[in-house]
Write a structure and sequence with these properties.
Length: 144
């Protein structure tokens, strides 16, 4: 092996050692510097609300339910009752007890999004047509 190759191998080894040490000590220093955990403790269940119950919204709600067993669909809102009902029926068939949308948390009309936001949900899925989303997003942020 030539001197250049030996030098290159030694440089790689020293780089890996120093990077590993920096990562180890940096992680330890971060943990010592914060008295509380950096991430929130997990709640028992995460209550999801769906605004916009068409195909895109139904798909988003299904993905949310598939993401974690502690996620429940808690409320739904749409401008049209037939969309809400068909979406709800489809998701109940697929996910049963994890779809906990009682009659009092099924909101219909152009103000349905605000009622959903005020219903006690933890997360809001915004799947209404794009023209409505800025108002929905602003209301969700204000409610936080």
């Amino acid at each position: 092996m030539t001197n250049n190759k030996k030098l290159l191998i030694n440089d790689r080894r020293s780089f890996i050692k120093s990077t590993g040490a920096a990562l180890l000590y940096g992680t330890a220093a971060l943990n010592l510097g914060f008295p509380t955990p950096m991430f929130a403790a997990k709640k028992d269940t995460l209550r999801v609300g769906l605004i916009g119950c068409g195909g895109r919204g139904t798909g988003a709600a299904v993905q949310a339910l598939n993401a974690d067993p502690d996620v429940v669909l808690y409320a739904m809102a749409d401008a049209f009752e037939d969309r809400l009902k068909s979406s709800l029926e489809l998701m109940k068939k697929a996910h049963g007890g994890r779809v906990q949308v009682e009659k009092q948390r099924q909101f219909v009309g152009f103000d349905a999004y605000q009622k959903l936001i005020d219903s006690g949900v933890d997360v809001v899925l915004l799947a209404a047509p794009p023209g409505f989303r800025p108002n929905h997003l602003a209301a969700a942020v204000e409610a936080r």
